[in-house]
Amino acid sequence: MKIRDGRLKKPLSKSFEHLNSSIGFDIRLAKYDIAGSIAYAKALKRVGIITDKEMKSIINGLETIQLEIENGKFVPNPENEDIHMNIEMRLLELVGTVALKLHTGRSRNEQIVLDERLYLIDALKNIKSNLKNLLKSLYLKAKDSRKIIMPSYTHLQQAQLISASHLLLAYYRAIYRDHQRLLDIEKRLNEMPLGSGAVAGSSIGIDREFLLKELGFISLTKNSIDAVSNRDFIIEFEFILTSIFLTLSRISEDFIIYSTQEFGFIILPDELTTTSSLMPQKKNPDSLELIRGKSTKIIGNLFSIITLLKALPYSYNRDLQEDKPGLFESIDWVLVCIDVMREIIDGFSFNDSRIKEVIKGSKDYIFATDIADYLVQRGMPFREAHQIVGKIVSFSESNKKRLSEIKIEEYKKFSPLFDKDIYKVFDPVKSVNNHDVYGGTAINRIDEILNEIEEELKNI
Ligand code: ARG
């Protein structure tokens, strides 16, 4: 049976059939489509469109199809266009003409939105759980790395000393925000669209509250036109996936830089690196590069869905079929890449001795702000202190001396405020602990945040 036969005299052209078919990608919605149809069959019985016996027969048939899908026995037919028609046609084969009653008062326009919402509610749970694992790994690594002191960077130039935990906890914060964003969209995903019909609402008085409860939604969509045209829940979802990927990609970039011979701050786990087919010495950070590379797809998919909606007339248009491939691709990769990043965080180690060497190699310039702070503590206006330290740095450069090697007499020439205790400034731990403010890098402040995170992780 072909639904087009009533209205259209000729079969689909082969090339259009290829374009028209979405079963290649919407097959993954099968489980949700079946759940929606089972609930709908019950609702049809409640309004007297089908008998109890017919309902049971439909539900049995749908459950059989579900099993066939799980056992890989369900063979979709591309001629049946999409997942909805494929299931309906299989149901017809299994239970006979009673299957033809299932679609009463229902449209695929609402069915697809229902399937997508149910699918995303599930996907969201998986992403949240992967994110939580990544957050835990970042937390544990940060807890382990409190005492490792490394340079921080602005403009990729050495800036000030920080505890290595501070950087890991910066990554933590970004990922945590995305986790929170997912919680926030959950309520908007949880709006039940069935009963919207094709556009104007159901004409058979279907009990929407009943469907809501059967399917476990939180609220009902409030406008049938909006219900079948709205895809902003997909935009929001893909935005969050993009945001996650932006962070993963930035961490990747950091780690790629830190693992170079030139930096050598971190050692990547062997199992997440590759070697070159030509150069035997190589240990390449391919896992990180691929995460950075994959992020382009995810960003592209977000742009696709946004562009798809721009200028799309209300309400449903077939263009909307194209909302799925990119969404599915982004979800698949986000799950994989969060996991790979978690393994990287678990498996990498800081090369503390190399970091110390680099700090030494900085000719103590990394303490320049600490020297300015020293003068400020003794009453000098910061701008003046900044200038004086600038002069000291250039003096050190032309005299090829580290800042800690400059004699006290020389220091005093720059400012009488300098005293012998200036040399205490060149202490990495002290420098870090100077930033003793909530959210700063002082070790006690990191501990404060680690304690908060311990609680935070219990509640997500
Ligand atoms: N495969 C379609 C989609 O993904 C389902 C809805 C089809 N509706 C329609 N009126 N042709 O959007």
What does this structure look like?
The chain has 460 residues and is mainly α. It folds into 3 domains: 3-104, Fumarase C, Chain B, domain 1, CATH 1.10.275; 109-357, Fumarase C, Chain A, domain 2 (Up-down Bundle), CATH 1.20.200.10; 361-458, Ribonucleotide Reductase Protein R1, domain 1, CATH 1.10.40. The chain is built from 18 helices and 6 strands. It has a two-stranded antiparallel ribbon with strand order 1-2. Helix 4 (52-70) crosses helix 5 (83-95). The protein is elongated and about 100 Å long. It binds arginine. Arginine (ARG) binds next to helix 6.
Q: What compounds are bound to the protein?
A: arginine
Shape: elongated
Q: What's the main sheet like?
A: 2 strands, antiparallel
The pLDDT mean sits at 96
Report the strand count: 6
Secondary-structure-based class equals: mainly alpha
Key features?
single chain, 460 residues, Fumarase C, Chain A, domain 2, Ribonucleotide Reductase Protein R1, domain 1, 3 domains, two-stranded antiparallel sheet, 6 strands, binds arginine
Please render the helix and strand layout as text.
Blueprint lengths: L13 H7 L2 H4 L3 H17 L5 H19 L12 H13 L12 H37 L4 E6 L2 E7 H26 L1 E2 L15 H8 L3 E2 L3 H6 L2 H27 L7 E2 L18 H24 L13 H25 L1 E2 L1 H10 L6 H10 L4 H17 L9 H7 L13 H6 L9 H16 L2
Parallel strand pairs: 3-4
Antiparallel strand pairs: 1-2, 5-6
Helix pairs in contact: 3-4, 3-6, 3-8, 4-5, 6-7, 6-12, 6-18, 7-10, 10-11, 10-12, 11-12, 14-15
Bound molecules: arginine.
The site of arginine has 9 residues, from helix 6.
